[in-house]
Amino acid sequence: MSNGTGATGNSLWSRTWFKWLVALVIIVIVAVIAVVIWDKPLANARARKKAQELYDKAKARGFELPPEKDAVDGFVDLYGTDGGATADTAGSDISRALLALNVNRSGEVNQRPGGIDRDLLEFEWLVLQVYRPKEAAKYGDFIRSLKDQNTIN
Q1: How many distinct helices (H) and strands (E) make up the chain?
Q2: Minimal CA–CA distance to 130: which of 79, 72, 67?
Q3: pTM of the model
Q4: How confident is the model at residue 1, as a pLDDT?
């Protein structure tokens, strides 16, 4: 007998367990696809070479770094092949203006000039030397222009 919709009462789709099984299969398929797509990409040889160069330059400058393998792996993850966000913001005029404002600020009510660790600026400069050499000279001039000592605050 038909119920008027063309479906019989004995079809699989009318059973609740079958609907749950289909939903579960779909969820598992989507989860597997997500894991495959979302899997962290392997670091390529170019990123590793640049990370090693950054490590060597930083070590030669006297920066204290974790063991070489850990530091290089971290640099690969952080900077990739293009210097990542560090290189993007270091080359930005807005970022440089905000940094200069924070370092050179004085005379504002209830404000003290903010200090910034020169090592941070120098390390960022090293990142640019490795990942964006064209920006490095401009950034070097910028950090040398910041007033950080021998000023009246």
Answers
A1: 7, 0
A2: 79
A3: 0.60
A4: 46
